[in-house]
Each structure stands twice: as C-alpha cells, then as structure tokens.
Request: fold
Amino acid sequence: MQRSEQQNVIILESQKDKKDYLKSLVSGWGHRPFVFEKETSCLDNIATLEPDLIISGSFPIQRTCRFIHTLKLSNRNLPIVVVTDDQDVIDFVGHNGFKAVSVIEPGLSAVEMQSVLDSAIDNHLDCDDRHDCTLIVGNSPDMVRIKKLIANINVYEETTLIQGEFGTGKELIARAIHGNSDRGTRPFVKLQAPELTSRFLANGRIDTIRQADPSAIVSQDDLITALDNGTLYVEEIGALPPTLQARFLQLFEEEKFLASSNNANSLRVICSTSSSLETLAERGHFRKDLYYRLKVLIIEIPPLRNRTEDIPLLTDFFTDSFCIEFGKSHFELSAGTKDVFCNYLWTDNVQELKDVVRKIVLFDNEKAVRSRLTANNKQHLFIKDFDDVSKLIGISDLKKHMGKLNKTSLKEISRVFMERAEKGLIQKALLHTNWNRKKASKMLDISYKSLLNKIKQYQLG
Reply:
C-alpha cells in the first residue's frame, strides 16, 4: 500500500494542554488529526475514520487495557502509540506481545516522536494482514504467567496439555498457541473427544473441521496429511475410548505427533481436559503411557473465581465486543454491576460471564441481571463458607466417635462422615434462612419434602 501525503491520525487525550500539543504536532507533520477525550466516543468513530495511527495519552491501566483490547478486536495491525511512563501500562503491553503497539515516554522531543510515528505508519501500510487475532484478556499473575508460557511454548512447539474447569477458555489458549506459532497459517483442526468416540466406533472415520473445507471428512489414516503441518486440538482428551487412546499413542511412536520430528507431515498436538488425567490414569481409565506423552507441557487455567481482578477487564472487553457485534454505541457497565460481578462465583467461569454481558448489551437489562445475580450470590456465598470441611463435620471428635479406625469398616466410616456433613449443612442452611424451610430447600437444591424428612431424621428443631 502506497503512502499518501496525509494520513488519518486519531488522538485520544483528556488533558487540554497535551491534547493541543499532540494535535499541533500531527498537523505540522502533514497529517489529519481527529481528537477525542473519551474512549467510547473514539471507538464509535473508528470504522468511519479508518485511521492509519492512534495516539493514546496516559490513562489508568484499566482504561488503557480496555481501549487496546477493543481496537485489536477488528484490526490486529492497527498501530497504537501510547504516550506514558506508567509502569503498569508498559508491563501490560510487554506481557501481551501486541503487534503494532508501542509505548513512548512523554518527554520525547518532537523530532523523536515524529520518527516513531512515521515508522509505525509505514509498517502499517506495508502490512496487508489485517485479520482478527486471538486475544487473551487478563492481567492477573496467573494469566501473565500463561501468556509468557505461550511465547516460550511456540519456540519449541512441544505437545501441550491444557487443564481447567469448563468455561475457563481452554480452546482460546489453544488457538493462541497455534496462531502465534510458525504454523499459524496452517489448519487448526478441533476434535471433540466425546463426539469423536461415537463416530469413530460407529464407522471408523473421523469428522474434522478444516479451515478450507468445513464439511471435509477424512479417514484416520489420512488425518495427518489433511492437517498439512497444522495443529490438532483434541478437546476433553480424557473421554477418548481405550481403542482410540492406543491409536493416538501409536501416532506418537510413529513421530507423526511430534513437532520436532523429521516427518514431512508431522503436526503439533494440543489437548485439553476439565478432569485430571493423572487421576484417570491412576484409576486405570486412561493409558499412563499416553498421559506421559501428553504432559510434556501443562498449562493450568485458573477458574474465574480465583482471578477476580480480571473480571472488570473481561466485562469491559465483552461489552465492547457485543457493542461492535450488535452495532450499538460503546458504553460502560455501572460500578455497581461490576461489583456484583466481582463477588459472584461464576460456576461456569468466563463463558458464563460472557453470556451474562451479552444479554445486558442485547436487551439493556443491566438492573434485572444485577438483581438476579445478587439473589443467586446469597447461595454461593453460603456454600463458600464450607471450604473448611473439618469444621462442618467435627473431624476433631470423629476418631473418638468411631473408635479405632483399623477395626471399623470403610463403609461405616464413609456413612458417619457423610451424615455429619449433611446434618451440618442443613443446620447452616436453616440458620442462614432464619428457619424458612422453603428457602433452605432451594438453597440446598433438594425438594421441600426431602428437607422435612432430613430435619426429622437428624432431629433438628
């Protein structure tokens, strides 16, 4: 792309003196400046202005993260220059490895700044690759560690196992690993193990989703060739049947699943699981030799409840994403809603948060959603109080109650253990609801009749 005499340059700055200074510089360099004070107004006009460069002043880290993430949703190569000396912002840009995002110090001379901006514009015009990129949103220590790990993994292209609860974003991590590697232009094929099980056992064939031909069906023996040195992502690998586990292991032994092999058609393998493969292997439900092949590199994704500092950032990201999708003006959810979000347990993790934000943006029902989550949160916070199970069961006197453990059956120990836990939980629920049995039954997720029977059984009153 040839460079014209004038380029469209967006300036985001709230302070008048800095705003006027940047505008005069950009105009003096022969470009067309468009100045905004708020991110939402700026984002609403991005598509119309088609900027060649964006200059952002120094904003708090949360706002800077949101602005950059939203810009990268649609154009990964759009150059962004952030003028700041905020170390948190500098670390954020460095940890994420964003393409075409740079940070410069406020004290740079006009000549030095012009050199940086001209270079950013030239690089942008020379790059025709403007496809969407995989964004991993989160600045918590665990997510920063994962981002660094992805960069290292892509150097060696080792087999990778991604572990985490449902909805934590395992496929997102797999796609980020693939997209940021030398195989990024090759096919990324996703196989869901539970679906694969029935299909494979039924007809000996594997349905694959290919970038070039979504309807393609290839045989097991042709799978390697079809992937064309790409990445094979197997979801819920622990659900593979023994026969398919054996075939997977065989492909490793044939060096077709080893990125470092000399095989012309070798491919990278990334697997995910929401259960512990180590536990499955110990119980004989998963081949130990295959488990050892898969665990070369393990990425543990924490549940959302363990990285609550990422919730506001994810909320903003999803809000902007759905504003773009539904053609709505960008806005920000209220502080009250974000506070409710941060105190909610999100049993389905990031996926649940995404679905909730989608409904708010689509139906403009922020208040109703907040009320519903607040009501649900009472139950969640109640359950959260029982992390220390020993307090609930009275473990201190359990040994005395049972007598010598080596003379008591495991069945009897389990029965007493469970009865104490059940009784303690019911007592807490009744106290929590001021002995409203209907509310307690809903909180415990059992029928009202069952609760009455349990109250009678444990002589609670």
